[in-house]
Amino acid sequence: MQQYEKDHLNLVLENAAECTVLLKFNGAFPLDGPTSIDAFGSGLRYTIKGGTGSGEVNSRFTYTIEEGLEREGFVITSKEWLDEYDNVRVAAKKQFIKALKAEAKAKKENPIMYSMGKVMKEPNHELPLKRKSDVAIYVVSRNSGEGSDREVIEGDVLLAKSEIRDILALNKMYDKFMLVLNVGGVVDLSPVMEVENILVLSQLGVDCGKVLADILTGKQNPSGKLTTTWASWDSYSKEGTFGDWNDNRYNEGIYVGYRYFDSFEKKALFPFGYGLSYTSFDVKTESVTADADTVTVNVNVKNTGDKAGKEVVQVYVSKPSVKLDKAYQELASFGKTSLLNPGQEETLKLCFKLSEIADYDEECGCYILEEGDYLIRVGNSSADTIIAAVASLDKTVCTVKVKNVLGKPDFSDIKSEKRPVEDIPAEAGRLVIDSTSIKVAEVNYDNEPEVDEVVKALSDEELAFLQIGNFDPNAKGLSIIGNASSHLAGAAGETTSQLTGKGIKPLIMADGPAGIRIAKEYYEVGEFSYDANNNGMIPESMLEMMNPVVTFIAKKLTGGAKMPKDAVVKEHACTMIPIGTAIAQSFNLKLAESYGDMVGSEMEMMNVNLWLAPALNIHRSILCGRNFEYYSEDPLVSGLMAAAITNGVQTHKGCGTTIKHYAANNAETNRYCNNSQVSERAMREIYLRGFGICVDNSQPKAVMTSYNLLNGTHTSEHRGLIEDILRGEFGFKGIVMTDWVMGVFGGGKSIYRNALSNEVAKAGGDIFMPGVKGDYDNVMKALSDGSLSRKQLEINGSRIVRMTKELAR
Question: What is the pTM of this model?
Answer without folding.
Answer: 0.96
